[in-house]
Design goal:
- The protein has helices spanning 3-20, 27-33, 48-72, 82-90, 93-97, 104-114, 120-139, 141-144, 152-168, 172-187, 197-202.
- By secondary structure, the protein is an all-alpha fold.
Amino acid sequence: MTEQHRRQVVENASRLIREKGPERVSVPEVMASAGLTHGGFYRHFASKDDLLAQALAVAFTERLAAMDRIADEPAPPGAVSARDAFLAMYLSESHRDHPADGCPAAAVAADAARAEPGSPLRTSFTAGVRDLAEGLHGLNGPERDAGVVDRPLAELALLVGAVLLARASDDAALSRDILDEARGLLRDRAIREPAGPEADSAG
């Protein structure tokens, strides 16, 4: 297997685990998706868990790159900031309906929660969540100058939870409402507190 083929295997696995979940993805399936047989798999990966951890890391890297692009580009019509543009993208019906191309935090959270502590999948997931929170912190940067307490972990929890619930609901109207209300809550900064003496002392 060449390095190009190895990268292709990891990238295909990255999409498959977001679409189907890690437990429902097999080594032969991943190899076949790259047009390869699974005979050479163990020359490049220590185990299926090793592949899944690498694939999950790639998925988080893709999401962070998308955040960077949003931060670097002018806000689109209807968005007043990069943060608003990110919220509109993340809490969209398109993101809800296409998990294979979306955020791994929302796609793999339940599987990571069931994985053994210290397992490659859970370790990779934990690192990715930290990176996403840091990315949100960067998107929120200009608002800190306005004296607003930054709470990227709370925002990430709401984003991921909203997408999970929206995907799980078989009521189309409820699914849309979940996304819309989460987006409205974050845009109104209802979970963000003005900085002040109490906030300072709490820190």
